[in-house]
Amino acid sequence: MSWLHDMLVGFDLETTGTEPAESRIVTAALVEVKEGEPVRCREWLADPGVAIPAEATAVHGITTRRAVAEGRPAGDVVAEVAAALVAYWRAGIPVVVYNAPFDLSLLAAELRRHDLPSLERQLGGAPVGPVVDPLVVDRALDRYRKGSRSLENACAVYGVRLDDAHEAGADALAAVRVALALGARYPREAGEVEPALLHERQVAWHAQWASGLEEWLRTKKDPAAVVDRSWPAR
């Protein structure tokens, strides 16, 4: 059976910034999806413990005042999100994360910040996964398409409706639907591939993309440029 017909879980974070090592979680969502339709959604609003910059609020709409008034302690949110992800992976359920190195690296940094065990430790030393990252799959299988590879643009390309971009639950659901569309379009390369093997393919695909980008940057802009090849987390 293809993973396209099994349970998938979309995961997304909205945060205080764009640097995973420094930014904090503001909202998080985990959406269970079957055959493209949501069957359960869990969402969290955290008080990140720092001011939310205006530019971040402009993206996701959450102000510092609201986060402080309505959000739960960040450590509690981080612990619950991590525990939920670990439970899915222990059950063999793939987690779909658009641009996984951002969200999973940021979650890892938050776990360290709150002195909580890493995802790998919670998995008993096993690696994180299986993860499906539609951005990595799209880059690998439609290499020469021009334009942005944002989630919004991927939704447009693959015919996925995204009503409320940068709301964690909406983005998580849209990421799953993009993954399903990719799997249907590229069955031999992705859709009919067992999730653990697809995970390993994405490790290689991301490394290949990063190597090419690094070469281009060194040639065109910065001779010392380095692009991280790690996936699904830095």
Quick rundown:
Helix content is 49%, strand content 15%. It has helices at residues 54-60, 64-70, 74-90, 100-113, 119-122, 134-141, 151-158, 168-185, 187-191, 195-220; strands spanning 7-15, 25-34, 37-47, 72-73, 95-96, 131-132. A six-stranded mixed β-sheet has the order 4-3-2-1-5-6, with helices on both faces.
Kindly describe this structure.
There is one protein chain. With 234 residues, the protein is of the alpha/beta class. It has one domain (3-195): Nucleotidyltransferase, domain 5. Helices cover 49% and strands 15% of the residues. The chain has ten helices and six strands. It has helices spanning 54-60, 64-70, 74-90, 100-113, 119-122, 134-141, 151-158, 168-185, 187-191, 195-220, and strands at residues 7-15, 25-34, 37-47, 72-73, 95-96, 131-132. It has a six-stranded mixed beta sheet, sandwiched between helices. β2 (25-34) and β3 form a beta hairpin. It is globular, with a radius of gyration of 17 Å. The model has no long low-confidence stretch (mean pLDDT 96).
What attributes characterize this protein structure?
234 residues; alpha/beta; Nucleotidyltransferase, domain 5; 10 helices
How many structurally independent domains? Answer: 1
Structural class: alpha/beta
Strand content: 15-25%
Q: Tell me what the CATH architecture is.
A: 2-Layer Sandwich
Q: How would a crystallographer describe the biggest sheet?
A: 6 strands, mixed
